[in-house]
Each structure stands twice: as C-alpha cells, then as structure tokens.
Amino acid sequence: MTREPGPVEPPVALTIAGSDSGGGAGIQADLKTMEAHGAFGTSVITSVTSQNTRGVERAFTLPVEEIEAQCSAVLSDFDVRAVKTGMLAEAPVVRSVAERVESLDAPVVVDPVMVAASGDRLLDSAGEEAYESLLERAALVTPNADEAEVLTGVLPEDDDSAREAADALLDLGADAALVKGGHVPGATVRDVLVTDEDIEIFEHDRVETDATHGSGCTLASAIAARLAHGDDLRDAVAAATGFMERAVRYPLDVGEGPGSVHHLAALRERADRHPTAEAVEGIVRSFVERDVSDLVPEVGMNVVGATRYAERVGETAAVEGRITRTMSGVNPNRGVRFGASSHVARFLLAAREFDPDLRFAVNCRFDDDVERALSTLNGEIAEFDRGAEPEGVKAREGSTMQWGARTAFESAGETPVAIIDRGEVGKEAIVKLLAEDDETLQRRTLAVLSALGGQDGS
C-alpha cells in the first residue's frame, strides 16, 4: 500500500558563504547548525577553499554572476526568513550580496569573515572597504575582536572598548552589533550585544581548547536560525551563545589539527536522555535488590546520571524525592526524572569540569567504617574541608558543591573515585562516588557495601 506524506514546514534560512572542505566552518557548519535549530538551510557558495583542521591551502572565489545565479534560484523559490553571510572574499562579491539582500523582508546576520582561525586571510583589503554597504543592511553584525578592529579601528579589550566598537558599527548602519569576546584574554568570555536601545553582556566560562574552528560561523548561523523561527534578537543571541558554549565544550576530535566545534552537541544531548535515565533506573534497582541501607545518609541517597553533553542540572537524571530507608530495606520515593536532583547533580556537573567523561554519581553516608571500606576501592580518594570554604562562596546559594569539587580535584593526582565531605555543624558528612558509566558506579558502591559487611570488595 502507499502511504500519505506528512509534510513538515520548517522556516527557511539562507547562508551566503564559502565552502570549507574540512567540514568544520563555512557553508558546511552553517547548514549543520541551521538543521540543529530546526530551520531548513539553503546556501549560496561564494568561494571554494581547500582547507582542513591545519589551515587553508587554496581558495577560489566564484564569478559574481555564478553567485548571483544561486541567489536568484533560492530567493525565487523559498520563503527565506533569515539570512546569514560569511566568507565573501572580494569587494565585488560583498557589493553584490549587499544589493541582493537589500530588498529582502528578512533579517540579515553579517559574520564579517576576514581571517581564518589558523591566521589565513580570507578577505582582501578592497573587500574590507566594501563591507560598509553590507553593514547598512545588517540586522546584526557579529565580529570577533580582530574583525571589529578592521571595521572600526577600535580593538575590543574590555567591555568599554567592545561597546565603543559596537557603537561604531551601528554608526556604519548596522541595527545591532554582537562583539564576541573569544579573542579577548580572560577567564570568562564576554560577548557584548549593543543596539540603539540597550547593551547586554552574555558571559560564560572560557573553555581551554584550540578546537574552535567554525565557532564564528556556527554562532552567526544559530542566531539566523532562531531569527527565522521568529525569536526577537535578544532571545536569539542568548540561545545561540548557549548553544555555542556547548559546541566548544565538546569539540570533535577530527583531523590532525585542533579539530572542530561540535555543531550537533545540543541535539546529541537530547538524544542521550532516554538511555541515561534508563541507566539511572538500573542502578536504583540494583541498590534496592542488594539493600544499600548501610550506605544511605540521613538526608537520603540519590543516584545522578548526566547525559554525555550535560551542562545544566536539567540535563541530569535522578530519583525524585531520593532513595530512603524503609522497614524492609530501601526504596525510591518516586521515579527517575531530569532535574530531580540539585545537590548531587551540581556536584557531578562541577566534577565534569575537570573530567568530562564522568557521568554518574551517588551520595553515601560517611563515618570511620565507611572510610575504611573506601580503602578497598581501586583509585584515589579525595576530600574537601568545609571549614576552608571562603565566606564569599558560602554566601552564594548553591556554590559549595562547585567549590568542594574544585578543591578536591585540584588536590588529587588523578580523577578520584570518591570525594569525601566531612561536613560541619548542621551539615551531615557525606561521600560521593563517581564513575564514567553506570556499571562502574554500581560496582564501586556495592564494593563499599560489601566491605562494610566484612565481605571481600572488588
């Protein structure tokens, strides 16, 4: 029998940019990112580059008439809701693209690609001068610090100079400017969004990696895709910078160079939720079957599993209401759901800052007997002392777990299998067991339980 189709109507976005044979940037990155955001990506290729993770070997700019033919083909057929421009290479291309987008009733996000991450130049000097005609049509321009300096003469080195550069871009005709902070030194990355009405800073921790190839293309494409969905500019930028943070945090180790950002990391995170929840449920069942009463702390026990790309508490699965003692053993109060744990989840996420392979954790009671049982485990046991916690950390709600994990990891020679919190007045002593997979967490917990009972652990 034949089946009726069930058509889907995603918004259409258009990228006008160069092709990256290495797959991490350019048209390839744009289309992957647009798809990840539920937009249908169309493309106009302006140039063909021969490049990989180590650098650009050759670049060839297509004739302007070929670029215009692609634009005509796309715009005559598709209801384009947003446009993103990337590598335009030469002045005639810049001017042609500016003319093409002038009459469009759609926001244009201009990523002024001028220099590759490898340092290779991707735009000639005449092209730089021609950019003013394109900026006049930009709903948003997204330069990094080097590009902002080329366009405005102002090098962003802090919030004030980033705002000065953004104001200059608005004077050139852009409706808004997002001056990216990835090239500005500092422990955090601060992206400064400036419009005629407001300024907003999007801040996130810097990820120590060289695998940032394609980050600019990916961010601009994510913004364009969100705009195509109808988001306002502020929400689109907020969503895209969060998306970008994860894409850089979990880069793709491909090629012999630094690698590429992970354009589909957010999709992979969502796809990993069901198996992660199932793994937590399996651990809980084993704890009920073996009766881990001797390890349940007064505050209750929780098992937490993080997806492979988890960055937030809502991306960790745990027992709602925790595991508690009963007359006949232990029992979970309710089922497993995402975001059910705060305390253990925040600790696990903080531990993942040092070892992203860690995915599972459980909190157990702690005393001298448990400490002796822990010595049967293969691996380092670390700890932190709440008495040494800075007052400023204590004053920030939810910060103790991050501080404790950081303190323990910095004092350990390797990833610890357990971290002891000896507690303080009003705070129960706890030990948290950590593992890369559910079976290992199960085995370590039951080994400690066996050692407590005088049996041989493994």
Count of the separate structural domains: 2
CATH superfamily of the largest domain: Ribokinase
CATH topology of the largest domain: UDP-N-acetylmuramoyl-L-alanine:D-glutamate ligase
Q: Tell me the span between the first and last alpha carbons.
A: 57 Å
Shape-level CATH architecture of the largest domain: 3-Layer(aba) Sandwich
Biggest sheet architecture: 7 strands, mixed
Strand order of the biggest β-sheet: 14-11-10-15-18-17-16
Would you identify the regions where 5 or more consecutive residues have pLDDT less than 50?
454-458
Rg, alpha carbons: 26 Å
Q: State the shape.
A: elongated
**Total number of strands:** 18
CATH C-level name of the largest domain: Alpha Beta
- Count helical runs: 15
Mean of residue pLDDT? 91
Q: What level of helicity do the residues show?
A: 25-40%
List the helices and strands and how they pair.
Layout: E1 12-20, H1 26-36, E2 40-52, E3 55-61, H2 64-75, E4 80-85, H3 91-102, E5 108-110, H4 125-135, E6 140-141, H5 145-152, H6 159-171, E7 176-179, E8 188-195, E9 199-205, H7 215-228, H8 233-249, H9 265-271, H10 273-290, E10 303-306, E11 316-319, E12 323-326, E13 329-332, E14 336-338, H11 343-352, E15 360-365, H12 368-374, E16 381-384, H13 391-395, H14 400-411, E17 418-421, E18 430-435, H15 438-452
Parallel strand pairs: 1-2, 1-4, 4-5, 5-6, 16-17
Antiparallel strand pairs: 2-3, 7-8, 8-9, 10-11, 10-15, 11-14, 12-13, 15-18, 17-18
